[in-house]
């Protein structure tokens, strides 16, 4: 059994960690947090130069042609650094949608631009409240144009293109949904930035009025493609969440070692030690579930839907748990803007909703486990 | 990343599988497959007898304590080979329950601290199941605080005279030998005045009394020592070095990689898939689904955590500290699952026995047994301390009794 990343992959993780420690310090994250820039452009450029944006994109489309395991280790580091860049929207959602369903021409047009850092992509799926479901998609596509509103769209205000989920039928079935690509820089889409929990990652409202759009994948296949994209993104986001969990745990541990109260380090009090031990347990369970997701993703195993849901749930719970208790370990200081704890708390809770909420994925997991048990 | 065996591992697995298929006591397969929680019982046979027969057969075939050196009754197998053997032994591994403390704790302690003569004399019989060992550490006044133990050993010529009481001793009533930690000097701080011995459980003055537990079962014992004589030659380690010796034992207690702990999740999933509530199947209820999903990912998380440890063994590396979370997670989960299953059963949930409404009372039994899971082999609190101190590097507790002579430590709270 070799249920671990290879030495090369671990080396890539170290390389990404070193790069991000240098280029993505908390100080750099705060530039975006404080609204002085919509995202860290320098970092984005650097990620492209390192080959991280295209690590899972085939060489023929301008990527490194490595694979999803390599992308997982980079994702972990992006989460650890709380990177203020549209990595998940572009790489896990838009690029994966193109890889699954794009025509040769579409792949040629967008994938090299993603790998080189020239194009930011996103997925326009949600329309207000609710979770991913065909019935929640009201935006209509007809005659090659789109009409409707998408929100929240992660990184929608800085994206160059969006993969848009649209209604092309009204039978009430999954094949009512089709996907389209919209060039957001071509005009025809009204873009409005929305304030959100995690200002280091923007959210936007996109209004489509007779907007020209190009089909992505076959008509009526939209939901099936989306499900695959969401499963892949669930695993990749889980690695970001695992990285964030570990970082929040380390911050809490380090503070507990340094901070003295009642004449001793607060980390010597069992109430604090046990809180940190429980954070370690959550983070460990999340890592192990995510490894299984990585295996399923990288081998395109039939277990992917179940593995992705499990990784998603475990990593969401762990990041929320670690981020929340990191603030608690810090006490009053943890509740200041000056300390970095809230950045992870914000990211943890924003990420918990980005691909559908925890309860949505719990539902998915049970359905998928039942399907497997029945088979 | 893959779940495949290396060619050598595959060859070893095939050999093990073939041997198990040819030799396992298949008449017990069904019964063993069913019992998932707590001590194993066989309806019509004595567990210890059946276990001894299986262990003897394994020893003859070279499969008992296989990671031990050959001269001590093992086969000199690697750690990963031991894991593969456990996987192939499957449900029959449950028959080894009476020997687990000997194999996992007493044997390694004798191996590390005993004389060559001891090792050659005792270990092969321990490995083959001919002689069963128990561990005599916990006391009424020293459970989590093992070093607070009070059983006295006093030197008299070439012998030691033992007086005192141990508790929570699994298998004392059928054990041949015991690993015994005693206090030999009460005038020095508690960790410094301890000495380790092993003794014949049939010695004069040893009295074993079963404990009736909170769940109504009797799985543990109290062991009383009244002027029991142990020859000095049965001392393990120097006088006063008992604490260090005990660490060898306790480290081994938590190293059982690949041993899957019961979590209650498969039972709960099946129960919810079949239980009809007023509005339909329980598994279609959003609240039930949410809890089930959380438990399922914990249970999967433990499984894949152990896979990570097995992978490290396969590469010849030392596994990381991740495996220390197992019992901490599964104990509480069993308790929570049991309580929730009974909640779903409503009024009938109060019934034990084999009432149909409560699926033969399995969750009721789980509820009553699970508190013990959170205590035995290290309480949840001790396990959290271990994670906090050894994994996260947080400071140890401030020990107010550290430099105080043992006989000056207070013995009552108020």
Short structural summary:
The complex is a heterodimer of chains A (375) and B (414). With 375 residues, chain A is an alpha+beta fold.
Describe this structure in words.
The complex is a heterodimer of chains A (375) and B (414). Chain A is 53% helix and 14% strand. Chain A is an alpha+beta fold and 375 residues long. In chain A, the strands form three sheets. In chain A, strands 1-4-5-8 form a four-stranded mixed beta sheet, with helices on one face. Chain A has a four-stranded antiparallel beta sheet with strand order 2-3-7-6, with no helix packed on it. In chain A, helix 1 (7-23) runs parallel beside helix 4 (68-81) and helix 4 crosses helix 7 (222-258). The two termini of chain A are 26 Å apart. With 414 residues, chain B is α+β, with helices and mostly antiparallel strands. Chain B has twelve helices and ten strands. In chain B, the strands form three sheets. In chain B, strands 1-4-5-8 form a four-stranded mixed beta sheet. In chain B, helix 1 packs parallel to helix 4, helix 9 (286-314) packs antiparallel against helix 10 and helix 10 (326-345) packs antiparallel against helix 11 (362-373). Chain B is globular, with a radius of gyration of 23 Å. The mean pLDDT of chain B is 91. At the A-B interface, helix 7, strand 10, helix 8, helix 9 and helix 11 of A face helix 9 and helix 12 of B.
């Amino acid at each position: 059994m070799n249920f671990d990343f290879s030495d090369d992959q671990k080396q890539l993780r170290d390389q990404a960690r070193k790069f991000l420690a240098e280029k993505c310090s908390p100080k750099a994250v705060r530039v975006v947090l404080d609204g002085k820039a919509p995202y860290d452009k320098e970092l984005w450029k650097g990620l492209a130069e390192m080959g991280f944006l295209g690590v899972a994109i085939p060489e023929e489309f301008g990527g490194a042609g490595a694979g999803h395991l390599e992308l997982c280790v980079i994702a972990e580091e992006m989460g650890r650094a709380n990177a203020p860049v549209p990595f998940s929207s572009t790489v896990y959602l838009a690029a994966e949608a193109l890889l699954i369903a794009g025509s040769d021409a579409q792949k040629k047009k967008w994938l090299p631009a993603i790998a080189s850092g020239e194009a930011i992509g996103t997925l326009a799926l949600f329309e207000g409240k609710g979770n991913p479901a065909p019935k929640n998609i009201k935006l209509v596509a007809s005659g090659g144009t789109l009409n409707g509103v998408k929100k929240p769209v992660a990184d929608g205000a800085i994206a160059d293109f969006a993969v848009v989920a649209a209604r092309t039928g009204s039978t009430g079935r999954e094949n009512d949904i089709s996907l389209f690509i919209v060039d957001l820089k071509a005009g025809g889409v009204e873009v409005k930035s929305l304030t959100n929990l995690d200002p280091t990652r923007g959210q936007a409202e996109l209004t489509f009025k007779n907007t020209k759009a190009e089909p992505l994948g076959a008509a009526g296949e939209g939901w099936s493609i989306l499900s695959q994209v969401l499963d892949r993104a669930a695993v990749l986001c889980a690695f970001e969440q695992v990285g964030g969990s570990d970082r929040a745990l380390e911050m809490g541990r380090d503070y507990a070692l340094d901070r003295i109260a009642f004449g001793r380090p607060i980390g010597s009090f069992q109430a604090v030690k046990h809180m940190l031990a429980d954070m370690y347990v959550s983070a460990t369970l999340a890592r192990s579930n995510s490894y299984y997701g990585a295996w399923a993703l990288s081998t395109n195993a039939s277990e992917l839907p179940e593995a992705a849901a499990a990784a998603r749930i475990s990593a969401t719970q762990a990041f929320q748990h670690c981020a929340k208790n990191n603030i608690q370990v810090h006490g009053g200081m943890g509740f200041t803007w000056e300390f970095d704890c809230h950045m992870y708390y914000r990211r943890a809770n924003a990420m918990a909703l980005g691909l559908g909420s925890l309860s949505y994925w719990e539902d998915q997991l049970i359905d998928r486990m039942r399907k497997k048990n029945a088979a | 990343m893959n779940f495949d065996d290396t060619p050598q591992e595959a060859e070893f697995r095939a050999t093990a599988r073939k041997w198990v298929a040819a030799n396992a006591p298949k008449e017990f397969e069904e019964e063993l497959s069913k019992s998932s929680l707590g001590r194993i019982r066989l309806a019509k046979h004595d567990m210890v007898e059946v276990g001894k027969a299986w262990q003897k057969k394994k020893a003859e075939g070279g499969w008992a304590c296989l990671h031990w050196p050959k001269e001590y009754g093992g086969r000199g197998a690697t750690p990963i080979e031991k894991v593969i053997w456990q996987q192939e032994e499957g449900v029959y591994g449950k028959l080894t329950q009476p020997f687990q403390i000997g194999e996992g704790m007493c044997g390694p302690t004798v191996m590390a601290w005993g004389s060559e003569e001891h090792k050659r004399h005792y270990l092969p019989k321990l490995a083959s199941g001919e002689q069963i060992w128990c561990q005599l550490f916990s006391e009424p006044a020293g459970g989590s605080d093992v070093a607070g133990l009070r059983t006295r050993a006093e030197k008299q010529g070439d012998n030691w005279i033992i007086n005192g009481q141990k508790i929570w001793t699994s298998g004392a009533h059928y054990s041949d030998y015991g690993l015994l930690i005693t206090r030999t000097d009460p005038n020095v701080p508690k960790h410094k005045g301890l000495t380790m011995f092993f003794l014949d459980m049939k010695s004069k003055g040893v009295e074993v009394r079963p404990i009736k537990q909170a769940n109504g079962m009797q799985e543990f014992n109290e062991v009383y020592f009244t002027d029991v004589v142990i020859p000095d030659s049965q001392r393990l380690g120097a006088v006063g070095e008992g604490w260090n010796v005990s660490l060898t034992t306790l480290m081994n207690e938590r190293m059982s990689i690949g041993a899957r702990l019961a979590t209650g999740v498969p039972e709960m999933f099946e129960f919810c898939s079949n239980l009809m509530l007023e509005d339909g199947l329980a598994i279609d209820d959003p609240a039930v689904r949410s809890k089930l999903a959380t438990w399922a990912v914990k249970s999967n998380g433990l499984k894949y955590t152990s896979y990570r440890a097995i992978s490290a063994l396969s590469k010849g590396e030392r596994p990381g500290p991740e495996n220390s979370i197992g019992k901490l997670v599964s104990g509480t989960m069993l308790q929570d699952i049991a309580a929730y299953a009974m909640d779903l059963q409503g009024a009938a949930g109060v019934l034990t026995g084999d009432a149909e409404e409560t699926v033969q009372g399995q969750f009721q039994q789980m509820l009553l047994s699970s508190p013990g899971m959170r205590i035995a082999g290290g309480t949840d609190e001790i396990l959290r301390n271990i994670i906090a101190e050894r994994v996260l590097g947080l400071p140890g507790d401030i020990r107010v009794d550290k430099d105080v002579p043992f006989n000056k430590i207070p013995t009552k709270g108020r």
